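Let us work through a complete example step by step.
Step 1: write down the sequence.
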Amino acid sequence: MNSLLIATLLFTLGVTAVDEKAEPVRTYTATVAGKSYDLHLDEPLKLPGTFTNPEIKITASPTRTFPYDGISFAYAAGFNWSADLSDPDIKIWSLNGDDLVIEVFAFSSKVEPSAVVDGMVAKFHTEKSTVQEITHKFNGQDLKGYRIPVKLVDTRLIVDIYDVSSKSATKLLILQDTPPDNADQSKEKAAILDYLNKTLTVVR
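Step 2: predict the structure and record it as tokens.
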């Protein structure tokens, strides 16, 4: 099938390429005279009826939704976004908070998660014997993974790696947390776990 025919079919079917580097949009709501309306960027908002000196309030959603590669979850809207799609063998998305980094690794083929763990153990110069196997229920799904405790000078890290693979390719959800000295996790991680517990979906 030649490229012109493919392009014609895609146009006919209304198929558009997804920009996987694009940061998920943040949604907004307008409350006018006690009624709420969804706002969309660069689109006019038409309100029914007439108003005299109405009170208008614009509210930003506290979350965005990660939507790529068969993985979806809500996360704090203020996290900084970056996407590295330069390597054909792996796509990496990073969502950075103050104490927590969320990463999604999407490999193009099957890779043993334990091999990624070994790479991180070497990267952080920690002991393989400290790695723990973990299981967590997210939105009704039991996900297995690994926990790597890391000590870097005066900084303590807890790296959790969860297997969210499809049938054809390895995908990993990674939470890199910097908890305070007197706690097992940061407040940011606790909040993100709550979002994941309620919203994480994985297409296998």
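Step 3: interpret the result. The chain has three helices and 13 strands.
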